[in-house]
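Attaching the record inline, Q. Sequence:
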Amino acid sequence: MRKLAGRKEKKTCRRAALLLLAIAMAAGVFAQSRMVSAAAVKYTSRRAIALVFDNSGSMYQNTAWCQAIYAMEVFASMANEGDELRIFPMHDIEVNGKKYTSSSPLTVQGGRDVSEIRQIYTPSAGGTPIETITDAYNSLKSMDADEKWLIVLTDGEEFDGMNHEQTGERLTGLLSQYNQSVNLMYLGIGRNAASPVIEGSFQNKVVITNNTADVLNGLTEMCNTIYGRDQLPIDGNTLAFDLSMNKLILFVQGSDIQNLQLTDASGNAAGTLTNVYAPSYSETGCGNTGAYYAKMASDTSLSGVIATYEDVPAGNYIMQYDGSASSIGVYYEPNVSISAFLVNEAGINVMELGDEVYPGTYQLRYGLVDENGELTDSPLLGDRQFVITYSVNGAEQTETMNENGSIPIDVQEGDQVEANVEATYLSGYYVSAQTRADWPFPIEIKATPVYDLTGTLSGGQDVYSLEEVENMGVYRVELAYDKTALTGEELSKVVLDVSFNREGGPDYTYEIAEDKKSILLYLKYPGNDPTGLEAQKYVMSVGASYIDEFDKSISAPVGDVAFEIAAYRYALRAEIEAKSYYEIAKLQTADPIAVKLTHDGENLTVGEMERVRLDLDAGGLEYTTETDAENSQILVRLQADQSDAGTYKLIANVSGYDQIGQEVSAQDSKSIELQNYPLWLRILIAVLLIALILALIWFILNQKVLPKKITVYKTSFSVDGTEVTGNAQLTNYTGGKKRSGLTITAPKCPFNPLAKCGMSLDLEADSPRKVRSRDRVAMVKSVRINNGQNVLSYKIGAASFVKDEETGKFKKSGTRTKKEGDNALLNIRLSNNGKCTISGEINDGTGNGTPMNFSVSLRFY
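Structure, as predicted:
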């Protein structure tokens, strides 16, 4: 192996290396995705790359070979893990003592150590064989990968066995053929390099550089096209970007570069650092000698550090490193994907994978989206171009746009819809939605489904008073469409249909409830006039219509509810609260007369009190009024002087308006007396009169009086043992007096005319009037016996009297003196059922006495 060192650094070589570096950096994630819902889907494609390395003699005339090998090392170091790079030399090479050819290429894996590339040594450089391209293509075809790229890097003007024209034609045919199955990039180095025209089904690009300076631009354009990356503008060591990045690659070239890192303003690492690699120049060259290769040398300035970060959020960052940098490149792979989805006229995505699509007008919306699935127009995406191809029943149309947008599509039931969206961005990076395994096209338009609309009706009352209708008449309507409750904005698509079973019913209004889960239905007075609402029973029927997502109107009954509006009664009542007597001198300091107002047992509200007025008939008296709304009353103060003394009838007429605006009235009256003297004086006189009357009554009740009436209830009269029939006779009695006489006469004896007897009593009352008449007691003060010559003894009550034979007078039995027995001084107690008895003999002149006995029982009434 031959090593060359100490060659002079050339700027053109560094540029070439950087251009190949750009190709290497483009080997990042191929973010090929479609947004069916909101968020983008991120894919990592595995790439197979076949690189044809022109190591012909012309590449070793200067440092171009060293720059190419350095660039291939950088290229490989930036490949994604899992990518495979095969380097096909046009002439055999050796690496660390092992031989590689166009049929047995040098193979390196992305994400691993690729430093062996700098050990490429060409033992014998020669011409430019076209067969190496075919070998690379055949090998690439056999590789298992998501993407396959064939890259031809050559400075060849005439390939072996062909002139320049033949070379161009041969390359055109060959590369166009290969481009039918793989992506192809051709970089011709130098203005004299062959320039093929490639036409194929896959991506292709041909770049011919006129000089070394143009190689940088050409390779940069190619690498960005292949890998979807671009170079990020930097301001000193500061980086800023408005998109999150799948991958961010920092490449700092220079002397002794170390500790390369990227942090945010707080010093935190940016995303995830996945790889740090230090590429360096090659010292191998080729084994050819002679004047033709006299300037072959290594470019010892080619060294640096590559730091790769993944999943870096948008923001501002700072790049830091140690050492002396000769050039800095930052390459970014934005975290974007292609999006394509259908939305309806309301802007709602209807094209979730597996969902059915129904007739209507849709927008095929397309564009690039960020990691959140939001369409983005970030300038970091560079120039964009979209090709939208769609067909309805085979009628294909194609639209080309240079920005995110949408295309209207009208479809009917049974239509077959096919669509694809392709896009290029940055420097031509290509993505296609159709390459996605989950791309849902073609789509068959299904018949618009019709679902059931159901609902429930709740709330309200069974009976309303007229004034309650607008406050309490609230009903809740809950609806479901296809067994899913309607809420939020869906309720705004509902129209209620409300009807009543008879005229004279209420009006209504409705609104979405605050919780956005139901509709509130309110009863209202017809024409805002409560009096227009008739008191009767009603049945309210509620139906609903809903405009569904397909703009179809679905109607269904919700329910019926019965309620009654009771007859309105507003019973206004007025009550005069006043004393019955007022002293005129103290009228102004006395409590005012109050006209208390109520309706249905409740005080009037302040508002109701403001609507009432009082008309008081005070019998000609003047008065003032004051409304006490808090206590539901009107206060009245009378104005009077001494000449106004007398009795007055106050009549209060109150009128106003009830809660529904109807006029109502009430009346009350009360008699009062106005006098010039205080009421206590009248009371005192009345008390004295009452006392006098009571004393008189007491006197009368305690005055002693005789029974009202005395009668005979039992008579016994026998003459000579023979009983005489008939009742005794009572005469000369006046009842209820203090004194009265009483004459008791025996019945006539028909068989003995001489058989006569009786007595006359002088009675005096011994019981007060308050004692019942039958319970009174009479005192017998004197007794006179009729036909006394025939009477031997008599008895009154418990007192017995016997005739004195000497004197012929009667004396009380048991007395010791004449005076005690004198009937003129009697004081005999006679009560109800008292008995009087007379015993004697009838002297008929023969000397023989005929016995005679007479007794009578008295009853008081």
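Confidence is low (pLDDT under 50) at residues 1-43. The longest helix spans residues 679-701.

More tomorrow.
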